[in-house]
């Protein structure tokens, strides 16, 4: 049974705890006067961050947990404030007294600590990495995030679905289309409508376009982090080509606002040509880069995530597939009919994640041919019914889960779990056999989102 | 390796004669003089993300792709605030990032300038005020120039940087 998410809701006198698995959803209620739940983190290690977040957001006490440190609330966050409770209205907080965070460290003779971040050397999002080092060797890494915590969940409460859309599409820029597709599915569930096939195809086309942009960028950056800059020049050129195509099709380089219910005219003939040219470029790229032995010397065996650990941490997305775990939200009849193939590798290292990305770009291009259709059908959204809705999408990073409760026409609770939220928790396992100089390479090979993780 | 060189010769130079190029030409001397006088020939930028969606960062990374190749103008992204002349600030200035942003600003040697990037730091993006957001950035720092957009395209960022150079 695969663990997907765990989150709480403020229901007046009680908290409701929702636990989502791939096969079922469990609900549990605890009274606010004694809000104690038992941890799931012994069976599902990835439940830990969800529970620590719940503890910060609602003040729920987690019994038997081996880690009770705050997660979202950092050193200067006022103590004993639980902002996701319905009776919290403050729009501004004062920085409170600095309370040091108790990092997970390994102590011993000659073992030392390296703190990196939140501001990093490159053009990259903020997050903190805390290493315990024995010389060059990484003994342990603690990933600490939530510097970008914008309280999106709270921000969306009290808004209609329509008002929430521009915010939801900006939660994580690289995965905007995937967030919009999750939102679309919830909107359709709530208005009890079916999506016309032609619109579904257009949306699927854009999701794959977003995926190839993200993958191509990584295909440049991963070799660049191993000191092979030529790949970045070519990878970023191809990514720019694809991003310009996104702009041409949606009017926005990241596809903000692209998933609407109106099909627009597309010049299918020229797009088929473009897809063929792109396939030729990526085939050349693969052919060329496979021939650079000094690069593969860095990629092979680095950042190894064994299948057993990937399962234990309920990993998702490219990370899981590169370790031999067949998880992909596109494994359904719609995608299979249009040529979807699940791409996976067994070695679980940086090289495997690199190869999975190349294979996925090729498969996406193949599917995009199938998704192209000249059609101008549209759908009018009916009225939205109250209820509790959930949806999934496969973003370029991995499985995205979104849940929205609607009460009296407005959002009562919004929750999103980015693939990154799961995979950040398994990152430290990949460091066991490597030196600290490999860290940027390993981190880039997963290319997780900070913004989607922190919300 | 032969494959690579063949491809390179076939592809040629990708860096574009953007619409901006005429403008660049017309003020090239001006930039050169200004960059030379004020920045010893190169303008060093430290990019700091204070809580964006990562689109602004992606566009800044795109500035170094072969189409834009920003470095040909003498403008560089540097790894440390201590090497920088300018802080390029994106994002909503979250409660959790604010102390770190101010610390990074402290580390930039004088004279220094702050340019805000994208709609977030001026609270013009769709995000609304919450307890976790301390934007607009001008509450905390003196802002010299703002580059608008959600996110601004690489071209708009280049134009914005030119405007900044004219301004100071």
Tell me what the structure shows:
The complex is a heterodimer of chains A (455) and B (168). Chain A is α+β, with helices and mostly antiparallel strands and 455 residues long. Chain A is 39% helix and 16% strand. Chain A has helices spanning 47-58, 152-156, 161-168, 176-190, 197-225, 229-250, 268-289, 293-299, 307-312, 317-322, 333-337, 350-371, 419-423, 439-446, 451-454, and strands spanning 3-11, 14-21, 25-31, 36-38, 61-63, 112-116, 128-134, 137-144, 387-394, 399-407, 410-417. In chain A, the strands form four sheets. Chain A has a three-stranded antiparallel sheet with strand order 1-2-3, covered by helices on one side. In chain A, strands 6-7-8 form a three-stranded antiparallel sheet, with no helix packed on it. Chain B has 168 residues and is α/β, with parallel strands linked by helices. Chain B has one domain: Rossmann fold. In chain B, 37% of the residues lie in helices and 14% in strands. Chain B contains five helices and five strands; from the N terminus they run H-H-E-H-E-E-H-E-E-H. In chain B, helix 2 (20-39) packs across helix 5. The model of chain B has no long low-confidence stretch (mean pLDDT 84).
